[in-house]
TrEMBL record:
<keyword id="KW-0812">Transmembrane</keyword>
<dbReference type="InterPro" id="IPR023591">
    <property type="entry name" value="Ribosomal_uS2_flav_dom_sf"/>
</dbReference>
<keyword id="KW-0689">Ribosomal protein</keyword>
<dbReference type="InterPro" id="IPR001865">
    <property type="entry name" value="Ribosomal_uS2"/>
</dbReference>
<protein>
    <submittedName>
        <fullName>Ribosomal protein S0</fullName>
    </submittedName>
</protein>
<keyword id="KW-0687">Ribonucleoprotein</keyword>
<dbReference type="GO" id="GO:0006412">
    <property type="term" value="P:translation"/>
</dbReference>
<dbReference type="Pfam" id="PF00318">
    <property type="entry name" value="Ribosomal_S2"/>
</dbReference>
<dbReference type="GO" id="GO:0003735">
    <property type="term" value="F:structural constituent of ribosome"/>
</dbReference>
<feature type="transmembrane region" description="Helical">
    <location>
        <begin position="160"/>
        <end position="177"/>
    </location>
</feature>
<keyword id="KW-0542">Nucleomorph</keyword>
<keyword id="KW-1133">Transmembrane helix</keyword>
<keyword id="KW-0472">Membrane</keyword>
<dbReference type="InterPro" id="IPR005707">
    <property type="entry name" value="Ribosomal_uS2_euk/arc"/>
</dbReference>
<dbReference type="GO" id="GO:0015935">
    <property type="term" value="C:small ribosomal subunit"/>
</dbReference>
<comment type="similarity">
    <text>Belongs to the universal ribosomal protein uS2 family.</text>
</comment>
Length: 232
């Protein structure tokens, strides 16, 4: 496996090997050991194999618009949008409305569905179990593997775990699929939440308030004080 060392080092850096204290009996084969504090350590080699199996399912399909991604988490939303932009997968980033996969009026036919948090989005899994659509899910140690075809066992509670997972899958995809419509160069910063943008927006809001209220800046009071001195 060509990418194994780099991918596993990134997954360890983002604490993807650290699971929860509780563990499902079907996920015990993915566990390396249990720490003295009670946390289950995930075997990243097995999770890396699951990533490659899920990529093989994605790459088989000629049109990636037939794949859906359901991710409602706020801290990984920017990375999910960037992943959908690179690969061309359709994403559901807001609250998922039940019936979008089975309702005849709003029917959208998908070949595979990626679920970022199956523990929170149980409606998606219960809806897809009757349609016989393969499900790729990012699971933690306390998730159940029922109705899941390709579970990827990783830490989903951390802030950077899911963002690095999206970055890794998109990077492997761009290397395997060397096409014109796919960008081969990607920066890791594009997948992370940029704090500088938030700070700039806060500064702009403060400047607008100062422009609307000149008393906040102190300029009018200073100018008035100088004019009084000149008059005296």
């Amino acid at each position: 496996m060509y990418f194994s060392k780099k991918v596993i080092s990134l997954l360890i850096f983002s604490q993807n090997n650290l699971g929860n204290q509780s563990c499902n009996f079907r996920i015990m084969r993915y566990i390396h050991k249990k720490t003295k504090y009670g946390y289950h350590m995930i075997n990243l080699l097995k999770s890396y194999r699951k990533i490659m199996y899920s990529l093989s399912v994605i790459l088989v399909q000629p049109n990636l618009n037939n794949i859906a991604l359901v991710d409602v988490k706020t801290f990984s939303q920017l990375a999910a949008k960037k992943f959908c932009k690179i690969t061309g997968i359709k994403g559901f980033f807001k609250n998922f409305y039940s019936g979008s996969f089975t309702n005849n009026k709003k029917l959208e036919i998908f070949k595979t569905v990626i679920v970022a948090e199956p523990k929170a989005e149980t409606r998606v899994i219960h809806e897809l179990k009757s349609t016989h659509i393969p499900i790729i899910a990012f699971c933690n140690t306390d998730n159940s593997l029922r109705y899941l075809d390709f579970p990827i066992i990783l830490n989903t509670n951390s802030k950077f775990s899911s963002t690095i997972l999206y970055y890794v899958i998109a990077k492997i995809y761009t290397v395997l699929m060397k096409k014109k419509h796919v960008r081969t160069r990607m920066r890791f910063k594009d997948f992370m939440v940029e704090k500088k943008i938030k700070k700039q927006n806060i500064k702009k809001k403060n400047l607008r308030r100062r422009d609307s209220n000149p008393s906040l800046t102190g300029e009018s009071h200073y100018i008035g004080h100088r004019t009084l001195k000149i008059i005296r």
